[in-house]
Design brief:
Structural class: alpha+beta
Number of strands: 7
Shape: rod-shaped
Largest sheet: 5 strands, mixed
Number of helices: 10
Low-confidence stretches: 1-9, 374-382
CATH architecture of the largest domain: 2-Layer Sandwich
CATH superfamily of the largest domain: Histidine kinase-like ATPase, C-terminal domain
Strand order of the largest sheet: 2-4-5-7-6
Radius of gyration: 39 Å
Distance between the termini: 41 Å
Mean pLDDT: 75
Order of helices and strands: HHHHHHEHEEHEEHEEH
Number of domains: 2
Strand content: 5-15%
CATH class of the largest domain: Alpha Beta
Length: about 375
């Protein structure tokens, strides 16, 4: 309850808690005032004479402000020096007892000069000892009152602020872990795509060197765009432009056996989605679908928007006309599909999905994700 708290450079949750701390101080003053009134009211109900009531009120009006101020200074010093709970508690009890005993002795002395102070009459050492012990007991009692009225609310508020700070740190750590995993997935995708594209161009080096050189230039453009790190997100229009260049390499490599078709809705072009998200789906559609047909392989890439502009959905489809997926074989464990699913899960927190639909007429990979700022809001510019 008296644990020291470092006052240096409060965090945002701590800064937000400062008005509550001021309210706690006012609450503490109110509690002390209420207890004083209850003490005096109890004496009135007990039938104490007017002189004793005035003496009690005078004692409380002198002892309580002195004690509360001294204890507040002690607590601030203990907090600054990080004395710890037990040492702060012990120092508080000693200080409260000493102040109470001192005020009790002062009232014993005042009783000789002002007889109307009806408290601890007599000049013997026994009366002085009784007055001192009476003041000491009240000092320790009022130390408990100060602890309840001032320190306890601060301890509760401090615990609340620490809980907020811990939750903030947990969320930040989770964001960092998510961003790191997204970066790792993308870092694995880029060399994966590079090796497969180089293999596609390698077949043209001897058959058509000029075309191979042209495609290497295209590959250089692709790498320049894919390796940019300024933003994990990009517009669908930019991603489609990148896929067009990628498709050009594949069409040249498999001339006469592969063709791409594009059906992109105009309202979908400004939607933002993770970089290289659709590239593994296109690669799978070519390798496991279209090229398994004899001479007329086709890959269709579609994008459409449903619902309202601010809260609608974007559906991206990569479809091939291959033989489909055999019942005993699925590609869900393939790295490309795993990477797409995991990136959607991390980026959209369950708000997006990848579905596979397969038949004898081909395979369709469908990415269904939100339209709007959800992607940017989940991780910022991770």
């Amino acid at each position: 309850m008296l644990a020291a708290v470092s006052p240096s450079d409060p965090s945002p949750p701590a800064r937000k808690a400062m008005p509550r701390a001021r309210a706690s101080r006012l609450l503490g003053v109110g509690v002390v005032a209420l207890v004083v009134l209850l003490q005096l009211g109890t004496q009135v109900a007990a039938g104490h004479d007017r002189g004793r009531l005035i003496s009690s009120a005078l004692f409380l009006s002198i002892e309580l402000p002195l004690l509360m101020s001294a204890l507040s200074v002690l607590y601030a010093t203990a907090t600054r020096r990080q004395l710890g709970s037990l040492r702060t508690l012990g120092a508080g009890i000693v200080l409260a007892g000493a102040l109470g005993a001192g005020v009790g002795a002062i009232f014993w002395e005042l009783n000789h000069h002002y007889p109307w102070i009806r408290m601890h009459s007599g000049t013997s050492p026994a009366v002085l000892a009784r007055a001192t012990l009476w003041g000491l007991s009240h000092g320790v009692l009022h130390f408990g009152l100060w602890t309840l009225a001032f320190v306890f609310p601060f301890a509760i508020e401090d615990a609340r602020v620490r809980a907020l700070e811990a939750e903030t740190l947990r969320l930040e750590a989770e964001k960092l872990r998510t961003a790191a995993e997204l970066a790792r997935l993308r870092a694995h995708l880029e060399p994966h795509f590079l090796l497969n594209t180089l293999n596609a161009i390698a077949g043209l080096v001897t058959d058509d060197p000029r075309e191979a050189r042209r495609l290497l230039v295209c590959l250089g453009d692709l790498l320049r765009d894919s390796l940019r790190d300024e933003d994990e997100m990009q517009s669908l229009d930019d991603q489609m432009a990148w896929l067009h260049r990628y498709a050009e390499i594949l069409e040249a490599r498999h001339a006469g056996h592969l063709v791409f078709r594009w059906e992109i809705a105009g309202e979908a072009r400004d939607v933002r989605l993770p970089r290289l998200l659709l590239q593994p789906l296109v690669e799978n559609a070519v390798k496991h679908g279209a090229l398994r047909r004899a001479g007329d392989g086709e890959v269709v890439i579609r994008a459409s928007v449903t619902g309202d502009p601010g809260a609608g959905r974007v559906v991206c489809t990569v479809e091939d006309n291959g033989p489909g997926l055999p019942a005993r074989e699925t590609r869900s464990g393939a790295f490309g599909l795993h990477a797409v699913r995991r990136r959607l899960e991390l980026r959209y927190q369950g708000g997006a999905e990848l579905r596979l639909e397969s038949s004898d007429a081909g395979t369709r990979s469908i990415v269904d994700l939100p339209r709007g700022p959800l992607a940017d809001a989940s991780l910022g510019a991770a």
